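During data preparation, we tokenized the protein backbone, and the record follows.
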Amino acid sequence: MDQATAVLQDFLPRYNASFAVQPEHPEPAYRPVDPDLRLPELLCFKDTRKVARDNTVKYNWRVLQLLPDQERASYAGKRVEVLERPDGELIVRYEGRRVVTQEPPPRMSALWAGVTAWSPGPELKRVVSSVGDHHISRSQQRHLAALEPMRPAKPVLKPVAGKDAAAKDTTSKASNPWTRTPTPTQLARWKAIRKGRLKGLSLRAISRELGISRVTVRKYAYAEKPPTKKLSAKERAKLMALCKSTAAAN
């Protein structure tokens, strides 16, 4: 390689002296770049996305929330252009106009998924540390506060007149041995609903704050313990066979 470089350095001056032609116009032939031209927005990846009903768009596992402005209060259902710049920044444009975006707050499902290791009840500090307190809004802090262990002494809730009176009162039912163990999510939801009822909130208000249906809220509100599904016939048969084999061994 060194020898080839040395030969090339000796050859190029002799070749240019014999065949080089002086340019008629020594100035560069390239047009100057327009100072108002935004090169990062031109030299980027562009794609079209449809805005969801919650005013968000998804792009390569990232979610952006479109904020309202003077032009539009909502972009739900509209087609927008998503630009990924070389530095990784995402820009959203609608009809050639840039739309202000931000990262949406975590969904309630993410908050419930962060609740693990229940002993004896969920701890607010552990949930906040797993999600990140800088991502927690005031409304979500109220939801997490509802996950704090309840006081031992709590009054017995009774159905109220109206639509809630038609709900079945499961507090009078005996415990069924053919039911599953409540999951952490079911236990957290039951405690949050019970605490909301102790605060005097209606079923509609609890449903709106927790983001679940009123049918589910009503079922949990009048249950003495977290409602669970019964074991299937196949699971009951396995359990009966296990009990019989254990009894025969003893």
About this structure: DSSP finds nine helices and seven strands in the chain. The two ends are 86 Å apart (CA to CA). The longest helix spans residues 2-19. Residues 48 and 206 are 38 Å apart (CA to CA).
